[in-house]
């Protein structure tokens, strides 16, 4: 492959990773359509807004992160991580109601505040 083809493939991959389109079936009446973040890479102590787009009746949302903090509730939260959380972090959103549940994850890369 030539350099232009490789750069094109990398560019398309980056664009597609910013938005995760997915439909989860078989979870009662719940369907997950997307899980998006305003920034997939951020410096320690900065924030990104993460939004879960799902359909179903009387939806409730539960957020968790393997490192860092999820602030807020509902379909949109703010995620922040300190210097101790540098690396690739997983944020999970579980959507549920009386008919079932579904979940999805998004990866956020946290870079050191002090480096380049």
The major sheet is characterized as: 5 strands, antiparallel
Helix content: 10-25%
Going by CATH, the architecture would be: Sandwich
Order of helices and strands: HEEEEEEEEE
> From the alpha-carbon coordinates, what is the Rg to the nearest angstrom?
16 Å
Task: Describe what is shown at a glance.
With 116 residues, the chain is mostly beta strands. The protein contains one helix and nine strands. The protein has a single domain (21-111), classed as Immunoglobulins (Immunoglobulin-like), CATH 2.60.40.10.
Task: Provide a descriptive summary of the structure in words.
The longest helix has 15 residues, at 3-17. The strands form 2 sheets. Strands 1-2-4-7-6 form a 5-stranded antiparallel β-sheet. It has one helix at 3-17, and strands at residues 19-21, 31-37, 41-43, 47-55, 60-65, 69-71, 76-80, 87-97, 100-111. The chain has a single domain (21-111), classed as Immunoglobulin-like. With 116 residues, the protein is mainly beta.
Write the layout of secondary structure elements.
Blueprint: H1 3-17, E1 19-21, E2 31-37, E3 41-43, E4 47-55, E5 60-65, E6 69-71, E7 76-80, E8 87-97, E9 100-111
Parallel strand pairs: 3-9
Antiparallel strand pairs: 1-2, 2-4, 4-7, 5-8, 6-7, 8-9
Features:
single chain; four-stranded mixed β-sheet; 116 residues; 13% helix; mainly beta; five-stranded antiparallel β-sheet; Immunoglobulin-like
């Amino acid at each position: 492959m030539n350099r232009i083809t490789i750069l094109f493939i990398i560019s398309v991959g980056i664009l597609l990773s910013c938005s995760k389109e997915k439909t989860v079936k078989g979870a009662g009446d719940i369907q997950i359509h997307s899980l998006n973040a305003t920034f997939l890479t951020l410096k320690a102590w900065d924030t990104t807004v993460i939004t879960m787009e799902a359909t179903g009746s009387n939806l409730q949302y539960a957020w968790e992160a393997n490192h860092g903090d999820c602030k807020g509730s509902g379909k949109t939260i703010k995620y922040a991580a300190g210097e101790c959380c540098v690396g690739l972090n997983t944020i999970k959103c579980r959507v549920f109601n009386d008919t079932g549940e579904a979940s999805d994850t998004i990866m956020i890369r946290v870079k050191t505040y002090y480096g380049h």
